[in-house]
Amino acid sequence: MIEPALAGDAFLRDVETAPAGALHLWWLGQSGFLVRWESRHLLLDPYLSDSLTRKYEGTETPHVRMTRLVVDPARLRFVDVVTSSHGHTDHLDAETLRAIRPRALVCPAGIRELALYHSGDTLAFRGLGESLRPFGPDVAILPINGKLGNMGGADAAHVASEAGARVAVPCHFDMFELNTASPDEFVRECERLGQASRVLRAGERLTLPGKGRNLRG
Fold first, then answer.
1. How is the beta sheet containing 81-83 ordered, strand by strand?
2. Which CATH number is associated with domain 8-208?
3. What is this structure's pTM?
4. CB count, 10 Å around CB of 57?
5. What is the mean pLDDT of the chain?
């Protein structure tokens, strides 16, 4: 079992004490991210249960969890808005939502002067990166598992580069044994393209200060 960089009380302390004046995001596993801007909290595609592991137990497609849970979703009731990119359970999980009791469930948008792109499940297609460039994404969160309707690592690097993303962050790996991939190809292609990237461990924070400043972990 992969241990998160931070979990439970330690994770929540990191969220609470993250400095003001910057955008912070924490990877929660799969495509889930917690985003904080000032005193506001946005939750993207959270999967914080074992509902799929139980659902597919004993079938030909067992969803064996690879990474330990970062946080009990019931401890995230301070979140202002929860978003879901689409209806797959690992992006829209009823157990997680019942525990959080979100005040609002909506589609994500840019956050003030910082823009964040979260693709959900997405295949790369001609023009995707260019279509994002006018929005000037500071961070592009892209899947890298390369199966079941998702692009692979090399394609994700190209989309981020074509979009002009300030930093590319991979997701949709290290959750289920049957549907994962190494981020190595993504990192290599980002390096070749000159695209800044950051691979997070579950529970780890990435901080994006205002434009023109360096990224921080």
1. 105-106, 81-83, 40-44, 32-37, 23-29, 205-208
2. 3.60.15.10
3. 0.67
4. 11
5. 89
